[in-house]
Amino acid sequence: MFDVDLIRKDFPVLSRELPGGRALVYLDSGNSSQKPNQVIEVMRDHLANHYSNVGRAHHTLGAESTAAYEDARDAIAAFVGAPSRDEIVFTKNASEALNLVAYAFGNPIATDERFRVGPGDEIVISEMEHHSNIVPWQLLAQRTGATLRWFKVTDEGRLDLDDLDDLVNERTKIVSIVHQSNVLGTVNSVSPILARAREVGALMMLDASQSVPHMPVDVTELGVDFVAFTGHKMVGPSGIGVLWGRRELLDAMPPFLGGGEMIEAVWMDRSTYAPVPHKFEAGTPPIVEAIGLGAAANYLTGIGMADVRAHEKTLTGYALDALGEVPGLKVIGPRTNISRGGTISFTLKNLSGDDIHPHDVGQILDDAFGIAVRVGHHCARPLHLRFGIPATTRASLYLYNTTDEIDALARGLHHVQKVFG
After folding, report:
1. In this predicted structure, what is the pLDDT of residue 421?
2. For residue 396, what are the CA distances in angstroms to 218, 309, 400?
3. How does DSSP classify residue 405?
């Protein structure tokens, strides 16, 4: 049975008392999640007792470190339903995973026609993307002369699929969209877009940075070609992310970075490359971080991702109701608890109807109540421009949050309104 009070005991920072005797209310997991003792201890133990470089040291510590690193790959593969551990590529973060795939397109050394991109070809994204799923494709378009196109977003914060057949067409090389929005909380339906991509021969990628930590995700069931996600949002460490890709596509892609361990053999005038996933893991990798991410996957698996999803769904419904009672508060994104996650972004007015800047909202919540939220455009400026606002306040929920913390947020927002008259 899911027991949030028991889970909270695993996270030492949640019992921290802030200056002035304030209890910490952490509602910023969409930015970066907190870490349980089970992850912290695995990383500490490896650094203290087993650390060595991986894949190259023929001694006891080298063997132990390599085994732990590859065990982490197994844990991640199992966590997302990957058919093979070799389809799990460790990256620095989701941004690097997205860039890795974007770099493969239009690369002069790519021999597979699916990765050849030039004038007349098209790349499709959406208005609700994080900058990490916009800028790499802009750069690809600039390098190759391809055209960048995008899905619009409705007033309710959903992808507008009315123009699906026009946007995704015979000129489309790849569609790359977010699985769950880091601003709106919207969980996008993959199947209609994927069906159209398959119909026209395009590849499809998902930025799953906000979905993999919060719900059961099985890459085989999704049926897409690539999935990117990151460790620090799923109770794991920063500095480690994951690219999952279908094996035959990874085999066909050129390397992203060159260096040690990604090679098979090197001469002065040429090189041959190691099999995947090592072809994409040049140099000494983030060893302890990968091991910590494996521990995070095991921790979440032990709790059960279906139970994590159910807990967050209950919290999200509670939060939408509670925030709906705050006058002058407007949720940007779905107002109902259907096909959405626990990320809630909003604007706030005072009781006279004047806007309160999100930076002021965040500072007062922190200073007066110890409530941590994120403010700004959340690395999704085009989405904010679409809604005609410069910034929002964002509360993002996770497995360790409670209804009491949501009540504290609502009280804090009423206080903010009083401060600003």
Report:
1. 83
2. 23, 13, 11
3. H
Domain spans of the chain, in order of start: 4-30+304-419, 37-81+254-303, 94-230
Instruction: Please tell me whether residue 380 adopts helix, strand or coil conformation.
Output: coil
Of the candidates 212, 145, 201, 152, the residue with the CA atom closest to the CA atom of residue 173: 201
- Angle (deg, nearest 10), helices 287-303 and 37-49: 150
Enter the pTM of the model.
0.97
Mean pLDDT by 10 residues, the chain (421 residues): 96 95 97 98 98 91 97 98 98 98 94 96 98 98 98 98 98 98 98 98 98 98 98 98 98 95 95 97 97 98 98 98 97 97 98 96 97 98 98 98 98 97 83
User: CATH number for the 4-30+304-419 domain, one of 3.30.70.1230, 3.90.180.10, 3.90.1150.10, 3.30.70.100?
Assistant: 3.90.1150.10
Short-list 187, 191, 211, 161, CA closest to 338: 187
Kindly report the number of other CB atoms within 10 A of residue 230's CB atom.
28
pLDDT of 114: 97
The DSSP output letter for 114 is: G
What pLDDT does 57 receive? 81
Residue tagged 């939220």 (tokens): 373
Amino acid found at 37: N
Question: Of 252, 274, 372, 379, which residue is the catalytic one?
Answer: 379
How far apart CA 67 and CA 56 sit, in angstroms, is 12
Fold of 37-81+254-303: 434 Repressor (Amino-terminal Domain) (1.10.260)
Active site residue 155: no
Q: How far apart are CA 321 and CA 318, in angstroms?
A: 5
CATH node for 94-230 = 3.40.640.10
